[in-house]
TrEMBL record:
The keyword Amino-acid biosynthesis does not apply. This is Transcription elongation factor GreB. The gene is greB. Residues 1-23 are annotated as: Disordered. Keywords: Elongation factor, Protein biosynthesis. It comes from Sphingomonas psychrolutea. One of its GO terms (molecular function) is translation elongation factor activity. It comes from the Bacteria. Residues 1-20 have a biased composition (Basic and acidic residues). Pfam families: GreA_GreB. The lineage of its organism: Bacteria, Pseudomonadati, Pseudomonadota, Alphaproteobacteria, Sphingomonadales. Residues 82-147 form the Transcription elongation factor GreA/GreB C-terminal domain.
Length: 150
């Protein structure tokens, strides 16, 4: 019989399961970000304990990711008053529009909610700036004006 017609099992035809990728570089987090990671670990451990055996592999893969993020987390101290840093809520003017963003660790980021990761180009441009300062962004000189930092 031809090998083309042989079928050992459905398992050999499934997509391989890979570990969730870890972002390169330091895992800088806010104190709140570290607490959120801890909550995620506890929730996953609880879900694994309650899940049927066939559903545990995906949950365990997710748990390995969050355990790694928890053990590599480096809590960043709050920035100096008036200076933009990780943990800052900054109001800025870009292209004539005033916006507010909270700069956070990568796992805590949610751009739709106004939380941008410190690795994002906008955050990198803002970090270190002070109120009233203009910073370069997207190849434009003094494209962003820092209005307020909290």
């Amino acid at each position: 019989m031809s090998v083309a017609f042989r079928r050992e099992s459905d398992e050999e035809h499934l997509e391989p399961k890979f570990e969730r990728p870890i972002a390169p570089g330091p895992n800088l987090v806010t104190a709140n970000g570290l607490a959120l990671i801890g909550e995620k670990v506890v929730a996953l451990e609880t879900a694994i304990a309650a899940a049927p055996e066939e559903d545990r592999a995906a949950l365990q893969r997710e748990l390995r990711y969050w355990h790694t993020r928890q053990t590599t987390a480096e809590v960043v101290p709050p920035p100096a008053p008036g200076t933009v840093g990780i943990g800052s809520r900054v109001t800025y003017r870009l292209n004539g529009a005033e916006r507010t963003a909270h700069i956070v660790g990568g796992d805590e980021a949610d751009p739709a909610a106004g939380r941008i990761g410190f690795q994002a180009p906008l955050a990198r441009a803002l970090i270190g700036a002070e109120v009233g300062e203009r910073v370069d962004f997207a190849g434009k000189d003094e494209a962003i004006e820092v209005m307020a930092v909290g």
